[in-house]
Amino acid sequence: MLWKKEALHEVDWVKEQTKSALSDLQKEVLYTKNGDEVKFDVDTSLDYLKTLKDKKTYKEVMAKNSWATVMAVQILLKNKWYNIGKIDGILKTQWKSTSKTMEAIAKFQSDNWLTPDGAPGPKTIKKILEVYENWWNSWWDDEVENEDQVKDLTEEEFEALCEKTELTDDEVKQLVKYTNKYDKWLYLSWLTSITDKQAEELWKVKEWLELDWLTSITDKQAEELWKVKEWLNLDWLTSITDKQAEELWKVEYLVLNWLTSITDKQATKLAKVKSLSIQEEILTPKQKQILKKHLSS
């Protein structure tokens, strides 16, 4: 049994080292109660891997901070739908010859005509960066091309659209274009409903989006709206699903003042928001404890 105790000790040690290593990525990382789940950012992961792109060997790649390197690779591959297992900064444990992360890396390597050894060496790091750069350029070209076809609004037209209770898909595109072009905040305070397609446009608002008359959203819309990231006001939303809570906690500043109740599972997810506005009166004592950093009292 001694080897098992040593193995468990090593796992605990690696977890602690992983937490420490994450500071290199200069990103706030949020853990669940047991420390297994991490909130991470794709852009930060790319920035970190860019610091390694000129390394010549696998040893050099891992020398700077192996936990941070592995975690960045895990985040980026998971974002491309590779099954990496847990995002924990661990390539494999000492007593196993492989892992889900290594299998995912090997699959990525094979898909991109690299030797599928499962190790995040310099060629693999460069290929990950290349894949993301090509994806971004393609996405941006499409956005520029599409945006050129969207009508430019005057300030008066912009203000008039912001006061409508219903919008067409083209009007939503016009509002988003104007908002980002002139660094505006987008207040759609009278809009009572949106379509899934409109949610796919609205998340592109750079800073601040207010949809405070929406009383409900779909899970699909939540999957899009969390990408706003900076500030999202859903003030009149009266309830959310577990799926929506799993998406909305990724927003940095989230307003949900009219929720009538939440579950403990939802409270645990929402606790990870950087800044959450929610009515304390609807919370159970347990939920108040979970969300205590967001409550004024």
CATH architecture term of the largest domain? Alpha-Beta Horseshoe
CATH superfamily heading of the largest domain? Ribonuclease Inhibitor
Main β-sheet description: 5 strands, parallel
Query: Pairing-aware structural class of the strands and helices?
Result: mainly alpha
Summarize model confidence as the mean pLDDT. Answer: 79
Low-confidence parts: 1-11, 21-39
Cα end-to-end separation: 49 Å
Structure report:
The protein has helices spanning 2-21, 42-50, 58-63, 66-79, 100-111, 122-148, 155-162, 169-181, 196-202, 219-225, 242-248, 264-270, 285-290, and strands spanning 186-187, 208-210, 231-233, 253-255, 275-277. The chain is mostly helical and 297 residues long. The protein has two domains: 2-134, no CATH class; 150-294, Leucine-rich repeat, LRR (right-handed beta-alpha superhelix), CATH 3.80.10. Helix 2 (42-50) packs across helix 4 (66-79).
Give a summary of the structure in a few sentences.
With 297 residues, this protein is mainly alpha-helical. The protein has helices spanning 2-21, 42-50, 58-63, 66-79, 100-111, 122-148, 155-162, 169-181, 196-202, 219-225, 242-248, 264-270, 285-290, and strands at residues 186-187, 208-210, 231-233, 253-255, 275-277. The longest helix is centred in the middle third of the chain and has 27 residues, at 122-148.
